[in-house]
Amino acid sequence: MDRIPILRIGDLLLVTIQVDMHDRLAMTLQDDLTERIVRDRAKGVLIDISALDLVDSFIGRMISNTAAMARVLDAQTVLVGMQPAVAITLVELGLTLPGVKTALNVEKGMQLLGKSYS
Amino acid sequence: MDTDGTFDLGQFNSPLLTRYAGSADLHQVLPLRGDEHVVNVRKHVREHALELKLSLVDQTKLVTAASELARNTLKYGGGGVVVLERLTDGLRKGLRLVFADTGPGIVDIELALRDGYTSGGGLGLGLGGTKRLVDDFVIDSRPQEGTAVAIIKWKI
Fold first, then answer.
1. Residue A69 included in any domain
2. What span, in angstroms and rounded, lies between the C-alpha atoms of B49 and B93?
3. Which domains are assigned to chain B?
């Protein structure tokens, strides 16, 4: 079965979504992420969507829910790399992803989580 | 509706479904029976939007609208088809997408279009939000017969 890889960097988890996800794949990612937060005792989750040319209400809801679940599991989530056209569409659609922290790229996302590369 | 090819849009006679019928120079029918078909619709709509030379923002809006409606057809209509048509109206060109199913229909369309309303555990943004992403939007829904939603994005 298809899965989106989750990488661990210290106490952070990094997910880079590079495929057009069908709904089941998005749900699998949500399950996998919550499981890994607990197993790896992760403190932060970075979701990189810079390669995504579409975020619809389903994917948006998955991201919101994942951030809420992570928070309950004592981890912060930062969504990084959203394309401008995706941001415009998302807001016009009515989705503002409340409660989800965002950053322009992975590096800034790590800074937001209080981490650095060095 | 036994096979995807035999879907009869004739049962819906909304003006938007027929208005530009003579000017369509491409007619493509795609099935909507599962998750993967939603991804397939997004891919095809993206290709046509590129061909139409829509701006990146308009491409994204159209593909997102298509994704929302394709999922509705699947989730609420029990599956169906999407018909893609390339339209010409004078100097402007556009893309029309018709999402049709033979499901239970929408009882109160105005309520369904309102932001925040949902009957299926979603965010309730599907229809009202989708309408904002396109230039033309029409729903024809009959109880126990089915629903057709037509959208058009014009290249200005």
1. yes
2. 11
3. 22-155 (3.30.565.10)
The answer to whether the Cβ–Cβ distance between B57 and A23 falls below 8 Å is: no
Residues of B in contact with A92 (CB under 8 A): 61, 129, 132-133
Residue A92 lies in a domain: yes
pLDDT digits (tens, 9 = 90+) for B111-138: 777 765 444 444 454 788 899 999 999 9
Contact A92 B125 (CB under 8 A): no
CATH label of the domain that carries residue A45: 3.30.750.24
Tell me which residue range forms the domain holding A95.
6-112
Q: Which residue of B has its CA nearest to A86?
A: B60
Q: Which of A20, A24, A60 lies closest to B42 in CB terms?
A: A20
Q: What is the number of domains present in chain A?
A: 1
- Between CA B27 and CA A88 the distance in angstroms is 30
pLDDT tens per residue, range B27-59? 889 999 999 999 999 999 999 999 999 999 999
CA–CA gap between residue A4 and residue A118 (Å, rounded): 27
A54 in a domain, yes or no?
yes
Query: Which ipTM score applies to this complex?
Result: 0.92
